[in-house]
Amino acid sequence: MAKLLALSFCFCFLVLGASSISFRQQPEENACQFQRLNAQRPDNRIESEGGYIETWNPNNQEFECAGVALSRLVLRRNALRRPFYSNAPQEIFIQQGRGYFGLIFPGCPSTYEEPAQQGRRSQSQRPPRRLQGEDQSQQQQDSHQKVHRFDEGDLIAVPTGVAFWLYNDHDTDVVAVSLTDTNNNDNQLDQFPRRFNLAGNHEQEFLRYQQQSRQSRRRSLPYSPYSPQSQPRQEEREFSPRGQHSRRERAGQEEENEGGNIFSGFTPEFLEQAFQVDDRQIVQNLRGENESEEEGAIVTVRGGLRILSPDRKRGADEEEEYDEDEYEYDEEDRRRGRGSRGRGNGIEETICTASVKKNIGRNRSPDIYNPQAGSLKTANDLNLLILRWLGLSAEYGNLYRNALFVPHYNTNAHSIIYALRGRAHVQVVDSNGNRVYDEELQEGHVLVVPQNFAVAGKSQSDNFEYVAFKTDSRPSIANLAGENSVIDNLPEEVVANSYGLPREQARQLKNNNPFKFFVPPSQQSPRAVA
Fold first, then answer.
1. If we measure between CA atoms, which residue out of 511, 513, 507, 508 comes closest to residue 493?
2. Of 196, 353, 475, 508, which is the most buried if we count CB atoms within 10 A?
3. pLDDT tens digits for 347-388?
4. What are the C-alpha distances in Å from 459 to residues 401, 429, 465, 485, 509?
5. Residues with Cβ < 8 Å from 409, sequence gap 6 or more?
6. 267 contact partners, CB below 8 Å, separation of at least 6
């Protein structure tokens, strides 16, 4: 009996241990049951002084199935996306432009410091911060965490709760597409993406969808005067969540879509003591009280932002890239398996100096290349280690006119395909053999391909470029046609008897396509793939 009890406890621990390394929560029941998939367009735009933010509705069934939310940010010249953090990890792909960004990792030191005089100053020479009663006229030198350069084609990884900012210092607009993984286990709130703004007093990106969902749920419930939904919550009756009753009264119904920053709800007395400032103007600006309606989440920096960044002799705008070939992925890492946080000497011990971006754009050496068909570049936890922590990855594809990427499926991830440029005819098939999508995917549209659904696409333009966000840090792709595909690796007898074909035709099905992923237009003769 004692042995049986011990075995039961061991089994429980194994089950709990296995579930603890899973990155993602399960979607709601029937969330991934589709009769038809739809390519989605952004349906909301929030204008700001220095640009705008567009959002896709996370209440759409496709996004609910994948457990993600999508937004697109446009920054004009000298525009700053003010700092914020989120309740779930993000992947941000730079579709266009270049500039600077920063991530503020809690507990990590300030490693960038302004010089006190001519030349550089070491960290040990850093002057102490001013204490109360000291001469306030004494100038303090600025110090902060690392500032990164970004360029077109970069993929930026932003962990949960890490503050992030973005700045455009060029004439070309910056266009950044952001995926937020709300089903990630790091998100212990609800399934809506939340932006915790650190500055400003502007509309929340996804708040309107949250309100729509709340109203829809209330309408679907039978009314009762005693139900919790019919009674205002205590905090709603007594407090304004932003501490600004006058503005709420003036703005009326539109105020529901507004959102203060994280300091707006604290009283001035708390903030004065916390920051050790006695200037009420500073505190008012911190709380967003002196904001104009036009400023929004993106502000224009008059005269440009002064950025402290190392001088680069070899290239003014090039930050040193992580060299994936120099990292050897050891056998212990392999045993941990896909989607696992792992233990021991991992990313947790080096987060302050971790690489947070990788370029997967068209100007870099691709992982898959066919000179007549296209190219593919991938970022996963093997070449950008921080993605293991996030449980996400991405790939950039470029498909030439009339070329095809073969039918394939992701064994362990949803794929969220965002069309960057051009258009392609895409087909998606579900577990019942039904074609749930058979349309042209156009630039700026998003298509969610659920896990194990088969997808194939044929370019309708000279170049169809896309980025596919994946909900696993090391997604596994199974090709259904071509060299080394599922069909190619079946025994010939199995193919012949499964499809009722003679051996010769079964051999043709297995061997006629020598290409692995990209298939050139049919009029071109097969060639060796580089």
1. 507
2. 475
3. 444 688 899 999 999 767 899 999 999 999 999 999 999 999
4. 5, 18, 9, 21, 23
5. 451, 452, 453, 454, 455, 477, 478, 480
6. 243
User: Would you say residue 134 has pLDDT above 80?
Assistant: no
Which amino acid is present at 230? Answer: S
Place of tokens 């659904």: 453
Q: Are 437 and 508 in contact (CB under 8 A)?
A: no
Backbone angles phi, psi at 145, to 5 degrees: -75, 170
71: helix, strand or coil:
strand
In SS3 terms, 244-296 reads as CHHHHHHHHHHHHHEEECCCCCCCHHHHHHHHCCCCHHHHHHHCCCCCCCCCC
CATH number of the domain at 360-480, please?
2.60.120.10
Q: Do domains 35-112+141-215+261-306 and 360-480 have the same CATH topology?
A: yes
Helix and strand totals (H; E) in the chain? 11, 29
Give every CB contact of residue 395 below 8 A, 6+ residues apart in sequence: 360, 376, 377, 378, 379, 467, 468, 470
Percent residues over pLDDT 70 in the chain: 72
Enter the tokens of residue 71. 């937004």
Which residue reads 């429980």 in tokens? 12
> Which two structure tokens, joined as six digits, stand for 385?
């280690």
If residue 82 lies in a helix (H) or strand (E), which one and from where to where? strand 79-86
Instruction: Identify the three-state secondary structure at position 106.
Output: coil
Sequence-ordered list of residues with C-beta below 8 angstroms from that of 227, at least 6 positions apart, any chain: 221
Query: Which 8-state DSSP code applies to residue 447?
Result: E
Please choose, from the candidates 206, 186, 188, the residue with its C-alpha nearest in 3D space to the C-alpha of residue 196. 206
For helices 492-499 and 503-511, give the axis angle rounded to 10 degrees: 110
pLDDT at 1 over 60: no
Q: Which residue has the higher pLDDT, 329 or 85?
A: 85
Structure-token pair, residue 433: 């053999």
* Confidence check: pLDDT of 237 > 70: no
Q: Give the SS3 label for residue 33.
A: coil
Burial class, 488, CB count within 10 angstroms (exposed 0-12 / middle 13-18 / buried 19+): middle
CATH class, 35-112+141-215+261-306 region? mainly beta
Report the distance separating Cα 280 and Cα 259, nearest Å: 22
**pTM of the predicted model as reported, rounded to 2 decimal places:** 0.81
Helix residue ranges, H only, 381-502: 386-390, 492-499
